[in-house]
Amino acid sequence: MLLDFDGATLIARHIAMLADLGVARIVVVTGFMADTLEASIAALDPRVPVSFVRNPRFDEGSVVSFAVGAAYLAGQADEPSSMVLMDGDVLYDARMLDRLAAAPGENILLVDRDIEPGDEPVKICFDAEGRIVDFRKQPEHPHVRHGESVGFFRFSPAMAAILGERAAAYAADDRARLEYEEVIRDLILASPDRFHAEDISDLPWTEIDFPEDVARARDEILPQLERAS
Fold first, then answer.
1. Which of 85, 184, 201, 208 is buried deepest, with most CB atoms within 10 A?
2. Of 124, 126, 130, 131, whose CA–CA distance to 143 is shortest?
3. Is this model's pTM higher than 0.90 or not?
4. pLDDT, tens digit, for every residue of 4-37?
C-alpha cells in the first residue's frame, strides 16, 4: 500500500479517489507495519475522515481483517449505509469506482473478462443467464464463463451486516486462515440473485503481489492512467 507510483502511494490514491467519489468515511484495517502505514495516511491530510482499526492477528487469513473491520463499522452510531470493500494492493483507473457506485443492483462485484491464466486470480463464474454461480480461485461449480475479480465490492447495509457476522464466525474457528472471499462466496451461493457483476474489462488496473507486478504497474498501467487523467 505504500509503494509509490509517480509521486503517490497506493493508499494515497485510494483515499483521494474515494474522497472524489463522495464517501462519508474511510476505515483502514492495519496490521503489519501498522504504525508506518497509519503515519503515512495521517500525513496526507485526507479530505474525508479516516479511521484505523488494527488486526492483531494479521498473520492469519484475510477473513480476520474482514471481521475486525466489519465489527468496527457495526459499532458506529451512524445509520447503516452501503459499504465499499477494497483490496489495498491495486493500481487502477478512477472510473472503476464510478462504475461501482453507479451499477444497478443491491450488491456489486467488479469483473474483468480478460483474466490472467492460472490459479492465482479470484474468479467470478457465470452461468448461461449471467448469474454468478461461483467465486473462488479454484471454482467448484459448473459455469460457462468467468472473469477476474478486481477485489472491489459494494454491499447494501443489510448485506454488509450479514457478511460481518459471517466473517466473525469464520475468525472464531478453524476457518480463520481462509481468505475473505470465502465469506462473500457463502452469501453468493446462498442468495445468487442478490449479487451482480459490473464489467470493467476496458479499464486499466493491476493487482500487485509480486515484483513483476510492480514492474507491470509502472511500465504498462501507470502510463494508461496518466493518459486517461
1. 184
2. 126
3. yes
4. 899 899 999 999 999 999 998 999 999 999 999 9
